[in-house]
Design a protein that fits this description.
Elements (H helix, E strand, L loop, with lengths): L10 E3 L2 E22 L6 E21 L4 E19 L3 E3 L11 E23 L5 E24 L4 E4 L2 E20 L2 E22 L2 E22 L5 E3 L1
Antiparallel strand pairs: 1-12, 2-3, 2-11, 3-4, 4-6, 5-6, 6-7, 7-8, 7-9, 9-10, 10-11
C-alpha cells in the first residue's frame, strides 16, 4: 500500500487584536538656530540632547496571511522625561564714557526644551522565522508636544538686573520608522523589544526678551531614537496551531 505523507508541522497564528504596555529610554536631539534683535546680537545655533525615560501603552491588530508573513497596524501613546538645555553666547555692551544713561550691560541666556509626550500610528510587516518568534519592520506617523522655555538675564554695570522667561508649546506631526522582535510567553501573552527613529520636523517660535536680546526667534528640528520593551495581551484568544 502507498504510504501517506506526514501532515505539515503546526505553525502559530498571530492574527487578532492585542493591547499592552511598554517602557524604555529615548535619546533625542534638538538642533536650533536663533535670530533676533538687540544691541550686539548676532545669529547663532546650538545642538542639545533631549534624553530621558519613557513609558506608555499600545494597541494593535495583526492579520497573518500565510504561514510566515503578517501585516498589522499599531498605535501607541508615551509619556516621557526627555529634556535638554543649551546656553546662549554672552553679549557684553561696554558703557559709553560720560553718558550716565548708557552704563553698559551683560546679557546671558539659555533655552530648555522638553518632550512630555508623543505617540505613533504605524503599519507593521512581520515574518515568523520559527514558532513563537516574530520579526517585523514598522513605520508611519508620529506626533508629540515640544515645550520650549527661554531665560534671558541682563545685568548693567550699575547693578540693575532685568529678566525675561517666555515659553511656548508646539504640537508636531512627523514620521517614524523602525523594527523589532516579539515572542510568545504563554497562553495569550507576548513580549517584545523595539527600536524606532522619530522625526518631528522643524518648528519656529518668537519670544520677547530683555537687554541685548529684545526679541528672539528660534527654529528647532527635533529627532529621537527610541528603545523600548513591552508586553502584549492578545484579546482574540491563545495561540492557534494551524496546519
Amino acid at each position: 500500500m502507498p504510504l501517506k505523507a506526514p501532515p505539515p508541522s503546526p505553525w502559530f497564528d498571530w492574527s487578532g487584536w492585542y493591547a499592552g504596555f511598554n517602557g524604555g529610554y529615548s535619546w533625542g536631539r534638538s538642533s536650533t538656530s536663533y535670530d533676533g534683535t538687540g544691541a550686539g546680537f548676532a545669529a547663532f545655533s546650538t545642538t542639545q540632547d533631549m534624553d530621558g525615560w519613557l513609558g506608555g501603552v499600545q494597541i494593535g491588530y495583526n492579520r497573518q496571511f500565510n504561514r510566515n508573513w503578517l501585516f498589522g497596524v499599531e498605535a501607541d501613546i508615551q509619556g516621557t522625561g526627555q529634556d535638554g538645555a543649551a546656553g546662549f553666547p554672552t553679549i557684553v555692551i561696554p558703557p559709553i564714557v560720560g553718558i550716565a544713561a548708557a552704563p553698559g550691560a551683560t546679557t546671558v541666556g539659555g533655552l530648555s526644551q522638553k518632550l512630555p509626550w508623543f505617540g505613533t500610528a504605524r503599519l507593521r510587516l512581520g515574518y515568523e522565522p520559527s514558532d513563537h518568534w516574530l520579526l517585523y519592520v514598522t513605520g508611519g506617523l508620529a506626533f508629540g508636544e515640544v515645550e520650549s522655555d527661554v531665560g534671558i538675564t541682563t545685568t548693567t554695570t550699575t547693578g540693575v538686573v532685568t529678566t525675561a522667561t517666555p515659553s511656548a508649546s508646539d504640537t508636531r506631526l512627523g514620521w517614524t520608522i523602525g523594527g523589532g522582535a516579539e515572542w510568545w510567553l504563554a497562553d495569550r501573552w507576548t513580549a517584545k523589544v523595539e527600536y524606532l527613529y522619530m522625526d518631528l520636523g522643524t518648528f519656529s517660535d518668537t519670544f520677547a526678551g530683555t537687554g541685548s536680546i529684545t526679541t528672539l526667534a528660534i527654529s528647532s528640528h527635533v529627532t529621537d531614537n527610541i528603545f523600548r520593551v513591552g508586553v502584549n495581551y492578545h484579546l482574540d484568544g491563545p495561540i492557534a496551531a494551524r496546519y
